[in-house]
Specification:
The structure holds two protein chains of two kinds. Chain A is an alpha/beta fold. Chain A is built from twelve helices and twelve strands. The relative contact order of chain A is 0.17. In chain B, helix 6 runs parallel beside helix 7. The chains are: A alpha/beta, B alpha/beta.
């Protein structure tokens, strides 16, 4: 099996699997007063400390959630509730993941003014565009760090830092899901009040995410109940998944640069080979995250091509996994020509992929070009 | 006192000497449909089927839901069986009527006296019960012309039955009384509706789907299987045939003119369907075609496809607008599944400019330019078959 769909989800690492199992065995409720509860609580806090350190935050600034989607929902609706009475503008981009984009659409329906910054002609974002869209009437700026469909890196740190200088009270949120453990993520350098993180994109388990909230920033809680996570996110904590998250983070956090270099090299080899095939275009920019490579195979439809590769046990994605076959508007935003938009494949890498695997992928794409029916 | 479900037939009641064979099929279908939700006795008398719970394990509400989808039942109602005395009729029915009256304000009482020995005549029963209802439910008024609720009292041999909750059944005639046919199921909106409509006319439906991996996915196939299980709520268990069609499609693309692709593909689908039908002893092919909806569904296109057919092709949606088909598909619960966005084998190879007025001679000539026979035989040979059940 060759797995090139790491932006959809990753294979859990051994450390993470073992931590989840330990967590299931250490079954106490962290809120219980007895020793079993205490043991679970301590495991949870260990994981929190590891994750906090990985983004340069304090442990008490990290809140566990069920997934990054929940983290982002909490921030966007929370910011709208706490500041939105007076300040009606939200600044975001036109290429956000649905977990952010759909929330913004919803608030737009409810009367907010949503400004969506679009990429320039060359498919890059200019920090100045984001900065100039923010005014005194803005309650929230939300911007992803790495795009999930093309790998485009957005100038979040530069934009947020400038915005904070001019309007210190504007809240800043960054969806770091596709950047976390792939590029260095530092909440200070990002000038972010909030960031959303997910475990299953970093070889951890599904069903657990985290939200960073800078100390001193307040938004209302999203889920009420027993007062877990210091009253901010009620519900008995999933200690096994938290431990799995912590273990995955611990395993990867020392090797960000090393893996980045390795994957960059792999990406360069892959894109060069892609370009050597006639009718194959690389949609991702050269300065994009090396972990996501968007290509288009002219004349072939994405889905048959994907299944053709699947028959050869090569797993890739058409657009993003969340859209399950629906056409991606994000691809159009990045100025991919109309004729190629039905033909997009997303190849998303991890450090475990090899050059030999990219060879096999390229050979299979070439085979598909000669045998699959073409779009008329 | 006991709750019953009474099922009234629609068309079967009009049948002549063969009526009892329809009735026995219907009774069997009802029994099969109620399996797994308790012990019921299903009996029939005087053009009505009585579904009687035999113990407390019976889920009466679920039974009503399932019976609403059994063809051959025009109306059904939860009824109350009480002792055959005026006193019982008046006293035991009040809780049941409270449920029936909820949200309504007018009623009338209807009495039928099958047992003429009952000491009260029908008008007397009506008057007594009407009086009691007015006393008990001050919000209700009598309206004999257009009542919201009609309370029916039937005096039968052993018991009296009271019913007021009328529920529409699925109508039609019992599945199994109208022959057996093979439905071409694409995964779109129309074909499940066609299957439903033909089953409604008593036909046992099997289904055939053509899949073309890698152009179509495992998910597309699961979607079709889900559609089959959804129509199985009406049709009963469905035998499902899945035909591997990739090589044939690729050959048509390579060997035949582009504008005739769809027509030739459909002729080959019909050929394969008929061979499956022969094997399974099915008498017709059923499709969801609607006249003029797409290029392959013009009258000229149908002339060309039907020329490849030895058995009748039934097209129950032929005269319907898309909106009408969608309405039925929502009603029977297949719509949401039909619109799931996977590629199906019809969409990948579609020509840019299909012929809407193909000429049969041209089509036959184009098709004959290549020997499809080995591929057809191979496709039939490799067809996967399984039975899809809704209720186990």
């Amino acid at each position: 099996m060759i797995y090139f769909d790491n932006a959809a989800t990753t294979k859990p690492c051994r450390e993470s699997v073992e931590a989840v199992v330990r967590g299931l065995e250490c079954f106490g409720n962290p809120s219980s007063l007895h020793g079993l509860g205490l043991a679970a609580e301590q495991e949870r806090e260990k994981a929190r400390a590891v994750i906090a350190a990985s983004v340069g935050a304090a442990p008490e600034e990290i809140f566990f959630t069920s997934c990054a989607t929940e983290s982002s929902n909490t921030v966007i609706f929370g910011a709208a509730r706490s500041e939105g009475k007076r300040k009606k503008r939200i600044v975001t981009t036109s290429v956000e993941h649905p977990s952010v984009a759909v929330c913004c659409n919803k608030l737009e329906e409810e009367g907010f003014e949503v400004v969506r910054i679009r990429p320039r002609e060359d498919g890059s974002f200019d920090a100045a565009d984001i900065i100039s869209a923010v005014d005194g009437n803005t309650c929230l700026v939300t911007c992803m760090l790495v795009n999930n469909e093309t790998g485009c890196i957005l100038p979040v740190g530069r934009a947020f830092t400038a915005i904070k200088k001019k309007f210190p009270r504007v809240m800043t949120h960054c969806d770091c899901v596709q950047a976390y453990m792939k590029l260095p993520v530092s909440v200070k350098k990002l000038s972010a009040d909030f960031i959303s993180l997910s475990a299953h994109k970093i070889h951890g388990p599904k069903g657990i995410g985290a939200l960073y909230i800078r100390r001193g920033v307040h938004i209302p809680e999203f889920i009420l109940g027993g007062g877990q996570e210091r009253g901010f996110r009620s519900g008995t904590e999933s200690v096994p998944l938290i431990m799995g998250f912590g273990a995955a983070c611990e395993r990867l956090s020392g090797s960000i640069q090393e893996r980045f270099d390795r994957v960059s090299k792999l990406r360069d080899i892959l894109t060069e080979k892609c370009r050597s095939l006639e009718g194959v275009f690389v949609n991702s920019r050269e300065d994009a995250s090396p972990y996501v490579v968007s290509i288009a195979v002219e004349g072939l439809k994405s889905e048959p091509l994907l299944h053709f590769l699947e028959q050869r046990e090569i797993y890739v994605s058409s657009g993003s996994a969340c859209s399950k076959g629906k056409k991606s508007s994000v691809i159009a935003e990045f100025h991919v020509p109309e004729r190629l938009r039905d033909s997009v494949l997303r190849i998303s890498l991890c450090a475990d992929n090899t050059e030999e695997e990219t060879d096999q992928l390229i050979r299979a794409i070439a085979q598909a070009q000669s045998s699959l029916a073409r779009i008329r | 006192m006991k709750e019953y479900i009474l099922c009234k037939y629609g068309e079967i009641a009009l049948k002549g000497l063969n009526k009892s064979s329809f009735e026995s099929v219907l009774t069997k279908n009802i029994k099969r449909r109620l399996s797994g939700i308790g012990n019921f006795s299903v009996t029939r008398a005087q053009s009505t089927i009585y579904v009687e719970p035999l113990d407390d394990s019976c889920d009466m509400d679920e039974a009503v839901e399932r019976l609403k989808k059994v063809f051959g039942i025009a109306k059904l109602t939860k009824a109350l069986e009480v002792e055959k005395s005026m006193e019982a009729i008046l006293c035991d029915s009040m809780d049941y009527l409270a449920e029936a009256f909820e949200g309504y304000s007018t009623f009338k009482v209807n009495a039928k006296r099958a047992d003429k020995k009952f000491p009260f005549k029908s008008p007397e029963i009506c008057a007594e019960l009407g009086h009691k209802i007015l006393e008990q439910f001050p919000g209700m008024r009598v309206d004999v012309h257009e009542p919201d609720v009609t309370v029916t009292v039937e005096i039968r041999e052993r018991h009296a039955f009271i019913n007021a909750l009328k529920i529409d059944g699925a109508g039609g005639i019992p599945v199994g009384t109208g022959g057996r046919g093979l439905l071409l199921l694409s995964g779109g909106i129309d074909s499940p509706v066609a299957g439903y409509m033909i089953a409604k006319r008593g036909v046992v439906v099997q289904a055939v789907h053509f899949e073309a991996p890698p152009y179509t996915s495992e998910r597309a196939r699961l979607k079709v299987e889900k559609l089959v299980s959804e129509i199985a709520e009406y049709c009963g268990d469905v035998v499902f045939h899945c035909v591997p069609f990739t090589r044939i499609q690729e050959c048509i693309r390579d060997k035949c003119p582009e504008e005739l692709f769809t027509i030739i593909m459909r002729r080959l689908m019909f050929e394969i369907a008929q061979r499956i039908a022969d094997k399974e002893d099915l008498a017709c092919v059923i499709t969801g075609e609607s006249l003029g909806q797409v290029a392959s569904q013009t009258m000229y296109a149908m002339v060309c496809t039907d020329a490849a057919c030895r058995m009748p092709v039934l097209r129950p949606c032929i005269g319907m607008d898309k909106a009408e088909i969608v309405e039925i598909s929502r009603k029977i619960g297949t719509f949401e599944t039909s619109i799931e966005p996977y590629e199906d084998c019809c969409t990948v190879f579609t020509p840019k400019h299909p012929k809407t007025r193909p000429v049969l001679d041209d089509v036959v000539k184009a098709q004959d330019s290549f020997d499809f026979e080995p591929l057809i035989a191979e496709a039939v040979e490799n067809t996967e078959v399984k039975v899809i059940k809704k209720f186990v």
